[in-house]
Amino acid sequence: MRILFDARSVRTPSGLYVFQGLATAWCDNPRVSRVYAAIPDGFEAARVPRGVEPVRHESASWLRHVGTVLPRIADRVQADIIFSPNASPPRDERSVLFFQDLFHFRPRVSKGERVRGWVGRTTRASWRAVAAPAALLGVAVSTEVLSHVRRRVRVRSVLIPNGVDVHDLRWVGDQPEVVIMGGIGSRKDEGVGIRAWARIPARARAGLRLHVIGVEPAMRRATLGSLAASLDVAESTTISGQVDRDAFLEIVARSRLAVSCSRLEAFGLPVAEALALGAPLICSDIPAHRELMRRAGAGAAFAPHDTVDLSRRIASALEGTGPLRMAPAPQAWTWRARANEHLDAYQAARTPN
């Protein structure tokens, strides 16, 4: 099988994680003869995983890219599969739509969103309505995403979660630190964690720090820093930006407790990684997190936005009554296993009934 990965839209850390994890695992699978990556001018070659053959193309408008550029590349490399990570594929029977974002299904402009972004998303949704019925398959990363796909997109679809690779790292909890796993954008709701921290009695926080990690952009770090100061917990709170994945895993593995306050996730990669590390985890009670905790048989949830509930759970964990922890992550969670599930699904979709 020859697979062409459309890497034009690989811009975010999570997008790069999927690209590198899935493409690398495909390269190691005996059912795959070649993996290609369609990359535009300016795409850093270092981001292309080992074993993947880059195919450079001139930058073009998004519609021209999916309408003509990508199908021509697929024909040239004789691809059997055109993998579209932004779920906006060519109108082609080889296309696989990868749904890894709930923002595919947001119907209107949200507060603070630029109209241009809404127009772009609406244009892609309109094209998807035309292209999807001709596609081979749609792949959703969670049950919630799959339900949206089956209601709104005319394409045969399956559920395959993202892979999780934490190497041989395991939780040790040897640092006096509670880590809030933040990220890009206000949906990460890190302020809930800071408010909960401020509610915990000072004696219970003595000698401990709250580390809010991965917060971007810088303006959000400043806002959260001001919040911590206003709540008189600035001295025990550290707020930092993105770090590379290995550093992130190390921080979570050495923390006493990992927390995610996010109010919207399609899959919840930081939560999946914390679970796979065996870290004690408290996360917001949203569908993606519930699904991961159910599969892991570990973790504890708090009501989204509820600082009182979260503060009680953090205090309880610090006193020794923490959430259940996951045993070493099963092989089924790895990218190697997930890539194999993809191939099974592609072959099943290509086989006449």
What is the secondary structure topology, with strand pairs?
Blueprint: E1 2-6, H1 13-27, E2 34-40, E3 53-57, H2 62-77, E4 81-84, E5 95-99, H3 115-131, E6 137-140, H4 143-152, E7 157-159, E8 177-181, H5 190-199, H6 202-205, E9 209-213, H7 218-230, E10 237-239, H8 245-254, E11 257-260, H9 269-277, E12 281-284, H10 287-296, E13 300-302, H11 307-318, H12 335-350
Parallel strand pairs: 1-2, 1-4, 2-3, 4-5, 5-6, 6-7, 8-9, 8-11, 9-10, 11-12, 12-13
Helix pairs in contact: 1-12, 5-11, 9-10
What does this structure look like?
It is built from twelve helices and 13 strands. The chain has 353 residues and is an alpha/beta fold. It folds into two domains: 2-163 and 334-350, Glycogen Phosphorylase B (Rossmann fold, 3-Layer(aba) Sandwich); 177-332, Glycogen Phosphorylase B (Rossmann fold), CATH 3.40.50.2000. The strands form two sheets. Strands 3-2-1-4-5-6-7 form a seven-stranded parallel sheet, with helices on both faces. The protein has a six-stranded parallel sheet with strand order 10-9-8-11-12-13, with helices on both faces. β11, α9 and β12 (281-284) form a beta-alpha-beta unit. The chain is elongated. It starts with a strand and ends with a helix.
